[in-house]
Amino acid sequence: MDKNTIIGFSLIVALLVGYSWFTKPSEEQIKAQQAYADSIRAVQAEQEALREMEFQQAQAYADSINADKPAADYGVFNAVAVGEEKLYTIQNDSLLVTLSSKGGSIVSVQLKGYTTFDHEPLVLFDQNDAKTQFTLVTNNNRIVESSDLYFQVQSVTDSTLTMVLPADSTGAGLYLHYKLNKDSYLVNLSMESVGMDKYLSPQMNSLDWTWNMKIRQQERSKKFEGRYSGVYYKYWDDEVENLSNESDDREEISNRLHWIACKDQFFSTVFIAEESYFTNTQMESTISKDPNYLKECSIVTSSNFSTDADVTHFTYYFGPNSYQLLSSLDDNIEQSEYQYNLEDMIPLGWGIFGWVNKYLIIPLFNFLGSFISNYGLVIFLLTLIVKLILLPFTYKSYMSTAKMRVLRPEIEKINAKIPEDKPMERQQATMALYRKVGVSPMGGCLPMLLQMPILFALFVFFPAAIELRQQGFLWADDLSSYDAIVSWTTHIPFISSYYGNHVSLFCLLMAIANIVSTKITMDSQNTGQQQMPMMKWMMYLMPVMFLFFFNDYASGLSYYYLISTLLTLLQTFIFRMSINDEKLLEKLKANAAKPQKKSGFMARLEQMQKEQLARQREMMKQQQKRR
After folding, report:
1. Cα 577 to chain center, whole Å?
2. For all residues of the chain together, what is the average pLDDT?
3. For residue 57, with 0-12 CB atoms within 10 Å meaning exposed, 13-18 middle and 19 or more buried, which class applies?
4. How far apart are CA 357 and CA 349, in angstroms?
5. Burial class (CB in 10 A: 0-12, 13-18, 19+), 456
6. What DSSP letter does each residue of 218-243 carry, written as one string?
7. Residues 109 and 229 grouped into a single domain
8. Euclidean distance between CA atoms 461 and 365, whole angstroms
9. pLDDT on residue 606
10. pLDDT of amino acid 300
11. Which of 20, 98, 445, 572 has its CA 20 to 30 A from that of 232?
12. CA-based Rg of the chain, rounded to a whole angstrom?
């Protein structure tokens, strides 16, 4: 940022401001534009009202047609085309599942051990939120939807339910067996076709499923929860993928799928094909405009089916996104192609970041949580252990900086000797000094790079850790959500859109601690080399940006960064107190007296600098000749 650059930027800003001022519309133009916009909105409102009226008329006509629809349209299922809907429940210590005789499907699921952010019973969905149906084709080619038929309940217990769609009086029909396992979030569905080969189409070798579901808001921050909500699916014996969580998305997949899920931040509804697969799947996820919902999911797919006396097995998972719980579901499944791998729905980072979470952070976190009930203390101990693991790398990075810091007087002599307009010569002289005393400028960078996998793994771990949900610590009542000490409802331009309508205290303290840490770090790393003013401002700007970025994040994450920053400051203070700059400088001067052997990298770097310096001199000579 030299003088010419600053003048250039100033002129650009002046031109932009001037252009904006001179092109600003007059009051009359603004009023005219507003009137035009109001007229457009009025016309659109009239068109919308007209479309709504036409839709209502069409719907009323369709209802009248359906009311007069002859029972023969349902073919063999005439007897069950009319009836009265009855609801039945099965339950265990974890789930309360409600099923309907109309359609024979699950219409409501409540998780007993959890509540919503406002302490209401946690219901994944009810009859207004979800609808599941399958299509049957009769032998006279009539298409019948299961949601239009009334199943007959044969037996029901606390945890099992059997219902049938009868075809005749001899027992032929389609049987649905639901079973809720003890202390489990799994519900087994067995579809048994008995004597249906003479009533259903012989070409019917698959079931077409339609599944529509609205994902409810369960957490305090709808915006933050929405980032982790959407449609997920697993290819048969392959990886887990998902539709976009940030925007509306649609996907058509002809390949075989093992399961499909509607997932939010901490809970999932999963439909699993056991020893079978889904195919020809169309999935769509849209961001809901209803304030009580996150996403609206629509899934159309097909599964294997036989009209003979075969049984087709499915499994539902209604439960929390706990890595430990989801991974344990595969313990009794020996064949890898049949394993669920539901834990892959939890965002733990890709590649090495995911490995660090799976094999280091999660086992350590679960170990600490097994005998410590306060998760604020668990996070503190986890941060402390991580800092101890990284201590050798941190110390090496600090020593590299300390060596360059004590050489500052020598660097200042070089800067005084070589003018500012010869930066390459300055750099070459500085590198020669570092090489002479045995200091590597890259010595502080490599340890920092080695720390990055752990730091990023923790960044993605805390927002996905259901263990922190509704766990309080100090003033925060929920470490999985923001800890607002001040909030407001008035919409403030820019502030409400990018910062939010609250102030998170842990986030605020974390930003302050980072500003202090930046100041101390920059002072301790002043090696005498010229630094760009813009770079200094960027270092201070980052903590301010954290305020906007983390204000809506999990308070547990901000608390971790606060503790991590404070421990880093403590480490810096201890390192500074334990290192004698005078003795370190003497050691470096002693190294300078020893014969130095150039490494291959340093030799190549020096050769590149010489060649670049020679090219610059040649260019300067050519410019002088032109003049």
Report:
1. 42
2. 79
3. exposed
4. 8
5. middle
6. -SS-HHHHHTT-EEEEEETTS-EEE-
7. yes
8. 10
9. 62
10. 93
11. 98
12. 34
Residue position matching structure tokens 């005084």:
416
Residue 159 confidence (pLDDT) above 70: yes
The amino acid sitting at 505 is L
The owner of tokens 């070589």 is 418
Residue from 226, 479, 234 nearest 344 by CA? 234
The stretch 162-180 carries a mean pLDDT of 87
> Is 569 in a helix, a strand, or coil?
helix
* Number of independent structural domains in the chain: 2
Per the confidence metrics, is the pTM higher than 0.85? no
With contact defined as beta carbons under 8 Å apart, do 266 and 320 qualify? yes
Same domain flag for 494 and 586: yes
> Is residue 424 a contact partner of residue 612, using CB atoms and an 8 Å limit?
yes
Asked whether residue 92 carries a pLDDT value surpassing 50, the answer given is yes
By percentage, how much of the chain surpasses pLDDT 70?
70
- On whether both 80 and 222 belong to a single domain, the answer is yes
Distance between CA atoms of residues 70 and 67, nearest Å? 9
Mean predicted confidence (pLDDT) in 344-364: 88
| pLDDT 10s digits, 16-73 | 556 555 556 666 666 666 666 667 667 666 766 665 665 565 455 445 544 544 444 6
Residues whose CB falls within 8 Å of the CB of residue 161, separated by 6 or more in sequence, listed in order:
88, 90, 99, 153, 155, 177, 178
Does 622 fall in a domain? no
Let me know whether 154 and 294 are in one domain: yes
- Measured distance CA(560)–CA(510) in Å, rounded: 9
Domain enclosing residue 202, as ranges:
75-346
Residue 417 burial class via C-beta count within 10 angstroms: exposed 0-12, middle 13-18, buried 19 and up: exposed
Q: What is the structure's pLDDT at 90?
A: 93
d(CA 101, CA 163): 8
H or E segment to which residue 486 belongs: strand 484-487
Find the CATH number of the domain harbouring 288.
2.70.98.90
